[in-house]
């Protein structure tokens, strides 16, 4: 097998706060191959966004990557100098955030920002940079891109802003895109448009993508593989069909079963009791044990190792048996 | 549990419109006198909507942002009067002859008529809708005390009862909202609404801000409360999956107008308005793996300048000349199924 574009190995990102050490990411591992879309799914506080930020070296104090490696085409990003990382970011690795206003400067026109982004990594004339910006906007399905280039961010709708943010991410044909809930704030019809564009782009340019989301249904339609995160750990990973048809980890099963789609209309939904633990006070052993119906004394004392075969891996002492109705 | 008489109307929304006008400021008025083209901007948030909610049913009101679903919900709750039209709440037992005109009523809190208490609202963000400086005991207990539903010496027991009903530990009654998690805060908001013994709850995106596993807990709470108390819900949401699960009937809104309404099963099995068809096709579902996303083209037009005729015609693949000029009205196409589209019978 060829080297994966991104290989996250035993990543640990901790935040050293006054209240104690918050283990936001605690031993997360996954690979992304060229042209592959991996969905990183979890609830708030599961560490999925921090994992994305860690890959790009965007963790600020009091946070720190305390262990593990992030290999980009075999090169360890955690060992790079800030300057070397800066040359990679926005160039070979791009990020798309949930709120496009986090990416866009509200007082600069779109063309100013995009030309600047082009010239930050490529020695080209202003005219050529503008042309590249125009092409990028057109490639994300922006109607009348020439006109939009002269607009300010506030003159665009939320969906259009997100398209601009995506176009900026695509300016340098990145080999890896980290997308952090980019469609969560958008309406259903606009979300569908953006998902369609992203799908086409990844297939066309063989870009690897990590799609961070809380929405299993969106990821089911978009991704090739899914990593389910809980309390800073990847608790289960596998192909979309593995995860949705044959989930083994009780948390994955609980997550899928709690969707209205899986219940009979008007009947109560299956719910996971309790709530996710704080990253400051993770339980000993398996972090899901206090909410798990199958937990035993072993689960509460020891951390379950990674088991499974092929690409379908899970961390559980008592995995549920395969096929489900 | 008292069996709800499903056919009795409870809220009648009659040709309701709500316009928001941005008045010109001083500089703009001077510019206007000097000959500049300045005009007041009007948003037609809700545009001539007629709709009836029956006692004991759960109505889902669905639409994308800016379609006016929240404005409509707030007017039904009595927050803001309609610009034109009327919303009538018909009390239990009373005939249609004794309606309460909400548009005209401006009752002081202390003498709020029974129908005002009977309609309660649950908001999207529990943190911003709860007073951060009040204890849960006071958040839940204040309204029933003011309205004479409980006496002061019974208050503690009453608050404990309400908290237990919504799944909160009564031992936490002296805590402040920030000491709770998101799901628990939403339970406090629901408890506050239930404390005045309403029979109609308006839930405005009440679960949108919650995590998936917590969403399921709150949806289950809504389902249980309906069974136990015979409540009626207006469930406002953009999430079609949730609406499909808990609603008896669904109304789809687009740019201030209801474009389609039908019983839930009928609507999802047999959508007729082109917007509804497109919307349903785009709902992400677990069963749609690695699919090709296809979308309704274009964006929602600005409510400042909605298109003439049918609001959906610029995005509609079937639009004709008639759609561009004439507004379609809601017409029945089946049992309780109404669609506002010129082309429905033809197609």
Task: Indicate the topology.
The complex is a heterodimer of chains A (325) and B (347).
Chain A: E1 6-17, E2 20-32, E3 37-41, H1 48-55, E4 63-72, E5 75-76, H2 82-88, E6 93-96, H3 100-103, H4 110-121, H5 126-139, H6 145-149, H7 158-170, E7 176-180, H8 188-205, E8 208-213, H9 216-222, E9 225-230, E10 233-239, H10 240-245, H11 250-257, H12 297-301, E11 306-309, E12 312-315
Parallel strand pairs in A: 3-8, 3-9, 6-7, 7-8
Antiparallel strand pairs in A: 1-2, 1-4, 4-5, 9-10, 10-12, 11-12
Chain B: E1 9-22, H1 26-33, E2 41-54, E3 58-62, H2 69-76, E4 84-89, E5 100-101, H3 114-118, E6 119-122, H4 136-146, H5 155-165, H6 182-194, E7 200-204, H7 212-229, E8 232-237, H8 240-246, E9 249-254, E10 257-263, H9 264-269, H10 274-282, H11 321-325, E11 331-334, E12 337-339
Parallel strand pairs in B: 3-8, 3-9, 6-7, 7-8
Antiparallel strand pairs in B: 1-2, 1-4, 4-5, 9-10, 10-12, 11-12
Protein model, in words:
The complex is a heterodimer of chains A (325) and B (347). Chain A has two domains: 6-92 and 172-315, P-loop containing nucleotide triphosphate hydrolases (Rossmann fold, 3-Layer(aba) Sandwich); 100-171, no CATH class. Helices cover 33% and strands 24% of the residues of chain A. Chain A has twelve helices and twelve strands. Chain A has helices at 48-55, 82-88, 100-103, 110-121, 126-139, 145-149, 158-170, 188-205, 216-222, 240-245, 250-257, 297-301; strands at residues 6-17, 20-32, 37-41, 63-72, 75-76, 93-96, 176-180, 208-213, 225-230, 233-239, 306-309, 312-315. In chain A, the strands form two sheets. Chain A has an eight-stranded mixed β-sheet with strand order 6-7-8-3-9-10-12-11, with helices on both faces. A four-stranded antiparallel β-sheet of chain A has the order 2-1-4-5. Chain A is globular, with a radius of gyration of 21 Å. Chain B has an eight-stranded mixed β-sheet with strand order 6-7-8-3-9-10-12-11, with helices on both faces. In chain B, strands 2-1-4-5 form a four-stranded antiparallel β-sheet, with helices on one face. Chain B is globular, with a radius of gyration of 22 Å. With 347 residues, chain B is α/β, with parallel strands linked by helices. In chain B, strand 11 (331-334) and strand 12 (337-339) form a beta hairpin. Chain B has two domains: 9-247, 3-Layer(aba) Sandwich (Rossmann fold), CATH 3.40.50; 248-347, no CATH class. Chain B is built from eleven helices and twelve strands. The longest helix of chain B has 18 residues, at 212-229. In chain B, 29% of the residues lie in helices and 22% in strands.
